[in-house]
Amino acid sequence: MSDAILPGPHLTDPDPLHPAGHGLGRHAAQPAGEDAPSPPDVSGVTPHVTRHDLSFTGSAREYFRLWIVNVALTLVTLGVYLPWARVRTRQYFYGHTWLDGQNFEYRANPAALLRGYLLVGALFGLYSYASQRELYWLALPLIVLYVALYPWLVWRSLQFQAANTVHRGLNFSFHGTAGDSYVAYGAANVAAGVAGIFALPWAWFMQRQYQVRGLGYGQARGHFRGDVAPFYIIGLTSLGLSLAGGIVALLLGGLVAGAWSALSGDLRSGADLEDLFGSTTFWIFAGVAYVSFLLLYTVAWQYVRGATMKYVLNNAELGGVVRTGATFSPWGLVWLSVTNSLAQAVTLGLATPWAAVRRARFILGGVHVRTITDLDHFRGQAQQPGSALGEAASELLDIQVGF
Amino acid sequence: MTRPEPVPVTLSGVYFDGHSSRDRTAELTLGHPVLLTLDGATHTFGPHELTLDPPIPGVRRVIRLPGGARFETSDFAPLLSWERAGGRNRALRGVAWLEGRWGSALGAVALAFTLLGAFIVWGIPALAAQAARVTPRGVLASFDEQTLRVLEERDLIGPSGLTAERQAQLQREFRQVQAWAGGGYPYRLLLRDGEPAGDLGVGANAFALPNGTIVMTDQLVALARSDRELLGVLAHETGHVTRRHGLATVYQGLGLGLVGTLLTGDLVSSTSFAAAVPAAILRGGYSRAAETEADRESADFMLSRYGTTRPLQDILTRLDAQEGDRSGDRGSWLDLLRSHPVTRERVAALKALDRR
Q1: Which pairs from A147-150 meet CB under 8 Å and 24+ separation?
Q2: B135 touches chain A (CB under 8 A)
Q3: Mean pLDDT for each 10-residue chunk of chain A (403 residues)?
Q4: Residues of the domain holding A281
Q5: Residue A199 forms part of a structural domain
Q6: Of the residues A283, B127, B129, B183, which has the maximum number of CB atoms within 10 A of its CB?
């Protein structure tokens, strides 16, 4: 296959958008095939499946120093440094993620992010001011604007994230359309809001499909083999877990409160409901139930995240030659999330970097790609990162985009 | 300024042309010019044609070549000295330097906690007071009603047992305080039983809600030896209203909750803020500074009326003494007036105002 790439570096190629002849030799011979989403050509090669495991080489100690220094710099600069801190954090995690001997890279421009942050921050500040001063003629249009632009912002954010992710010198890209985003993030979210659990898994499916199908690496395009049914199974599992856990939480709260009541004689027999609300027993019950529900919420939500991530990874393809796969256990991820949260709470947040590294190591250690071609046979297609507005909005306004 | 000419060093790494994902082993010699050795051929560049991405701890470095190609290397040390000599990435190189040391990391921890502490101690109260000042009147009204409902539901206060004549007399006297306090709030005095269900209630107490509702309990009325004492307390409470201390306390609680959420992440983020509002008024009490301010307002009133703050001092001392008695048998968990900071110092401050 060494003849596939024309010899000699094309270091001074003036037009990187049309790298004709610099990719695979056979592709170069195809007339006008540049724009069609075509997989790297592998005809004539016996399909031989190679498996590459992802690995993560970051360490908690190293990342702790990066994290705390960037937190301090952000505080000292009153937030101006924040985009640099975000970019460095991503660069650390991408840079320590390895696939087949090459690492990933994140290359967003912090200055562009800062402009986006400032714009979004200004709009949000204007909205806060307007709603506090009860200037509804100003607050209402801003809310409408945000809701109407939400899918568009997601779309821009996906483009930004993909275009700023680099592997083997080629950037990823996102080719989903804004219109499809209005289906996947607009219509689907509205449906989920109306029909709740009956439509929510469908919304997850639409969104993941939109993300994977739109993904491109070089000239290769993503393909999603998944179906909507497993999303419903994941949703129902989570719902069942919540219901069962909720009953257990109530029983547990009742048990602890009952034990307290029996030991302290706090509630006399024949006490009416009014007495109940003032009693210590009631507060113990409420406290235990509250913490249990919080825990349950974390467990149910993390299960959904982990299980959908695994399912999507197991059903994603790139360019017809690369399939991703995941072997990590969603329940393992749940356990990890719960213990991470506890560690962060106990250490007043100082365990955050450790938790992040632990999570990355767990997930990436359970992800692999299987390929029937060498990973060095993809051809490039440049995509400009575009404006950082969508990305800034999704980070600041906490839009849930990524897997 | 003369810089010593850097000695050319050769880095080994990997080359990508930017058009395909093919990796090729290459060498880069940093000198004038920079030489790239690739597949036996050598390419030359001026140093200014190259861009070096800022360093990230432990991550392979990227040198961007003209035309979208790149050279990646893990030969950190020689590349760093070349970067330093060329004055590249000054700011972010400094950041990476800080990130590489435990000393600076510990310094950053200390700095972060100091700033956080300062923000909690000074920043949040200042912001809360500011927010309380600009909060529209409409919001205030709902606070009062909600809090009263909670207090009644939990049997912390109940209907007053005072005679109608006594109540009317107190209301009449309250009108003086009300007229003096001003500020345009819809003031009203609610006389309530502070122990409708025994010890669990608020006891001998008086407190102000943000929109000018002032609750005074029968137990406090019984504790007073003269109505001047009660008027002193009422003037103190109107001081909390006009200075918007109650609302500031609520905002402060919300701010602290927010900081807690930021620190601990997901686990607490689903805490409902709405639930915190009545609780903050009930449990939090006011800050020392707020009490001092309200005391001063009350002193103004008393000095203008009676020429002395003595009655307020007396009832504060008596409340304090009563609390001492009660703490023997499990005192109420809800102490508002009585949880005021260090009564003795407050009385001393009032005496000082008297002498002036």
Answers
A1: A150/A185, A150/A186, A150/A189, A150/A399
A2: yes
A3: 32 34 34 41 63 93 94 90 92 93 90 85 83 79 87 87 88 90 91 86 93 89 92 93 84 76 57 51 72 82 92 91 92 92 85 94 92 78 58 54 38
A4: 227-297
A5: no
A6: B129
